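The data are quoted verbatim here:
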Amino acid sequence: MLNFDPDRFLHIQQGACRRAQEVGALVRDLVADGADSLFFLGSGGAGLLMQPAADLLGRRSGLAVFAPPCPEIVLTGHRAMGERSVAILPSLSGTTRETVAALDWARSCGATTIALVGDADTPLGSGAHHCFANAAADDTSCEMFHVLALAAALGAMEAHGEMPEAGRLLAELEGLPDRLLAAKRAFEPRAAELAGRLAERDWHIVTAAGTVWPQAHYYGMCILEEMQWIRTRPVHAADFFHGTLELVEPGVSVLVMAGEDEARPLTDRVIAFARQYTDRLLVLDSADLAAEGLPTELRALLAPALLATALERVSAHLEVLRDHPLVTRRYYRRVAY
C-alpha cells in the first residue's frame, strides 16, 4: 500500500477506540448527574467531523444538542450554554485559536468542558476540565474524531434512557481498527483509480446526505482544497436540485458519497440525474467497503469513518499523481492554527 504503515494505523485507531470508551462513560455520567445540553464546538474540519454525532442526538434524543460554527458562537453567545451544559471541543493540534477561545467562553458560562486532542500538553488539552488525547495525525484523525463524537452521543443517550444498546455498541468498537485496516486494503486498487479521476480535473462538485455529508464536506474543503489546492463545490444532496444541478454537463466532475442511513434516497436521486448529463460521475458508497462483522446498526453510524478510511488511500495516491504533498500549504501557518 502506497505511503502507509499498517502498524502505526492500528496503534492510533486502537488508542482512539480506548479513548472512545472513556468519553462515552464520562458523558453518560455527566448526563446522569443532570447535564441537559451538549455543545460540539469544533473549528473547520474538526467541527464538521462532530456533526454526525450531533445529528444523531438531534434525531433520537430529547437532550438539547448544538453544533454551531465555533468562532461565531463566541461572538454571539448562546442562551442554552450554562452550568448544566457539556462542551466537547475537538482539535488535533490542541492549539486551534478559535477552539481555544470557545473553551474559554464555555468555561466562563460554567459549562463542563471536554477536549479531544492529539496532545494533552496544549492550550486546549490543559485548559479543559477533561482531556482525551490520542497521538493521531492528519491521515488518521478523521476516524478518531468520528468515533469519539459517536461515543459521546451514545453515552448521552444511554444515560437519558434512549438507547439501551449503547453499551453493547460501544463495546463493538474494540474490533473497529482491524475492520478499518481491512477496508483500506480491499479499497487500495479503487483508491488508485479514483485518485486518477480526481487528478484529471481542477474542480469537482462534491455531494452527500445524512451521516456521510459532513465527511464529504470535509474531504472537499480540508483535503482537496486545503491540501491539494483543487477547487470544489461541496453541496448537500438535499440542495443539489436547487441550483447546483445547472452546472452539470459533459466533462463536469460530480463526486457523490453515499451512506447507509435513511437519507440514502437523496444521494440516489443525484446519482440518477448525474448519470444522464455528465461522463464524470464518481460514486463512493460506504456499503461497498469491506467491514465484515460490524453490526448493521453500528455500520450505518460508522459510515463516515469507513468513508474517511477509504478516502485516506485516495489522498495518498492523489498527492503522488499531482506531485503535491498533502502537507504543502500557502497560508496555513499565517492564520495561526
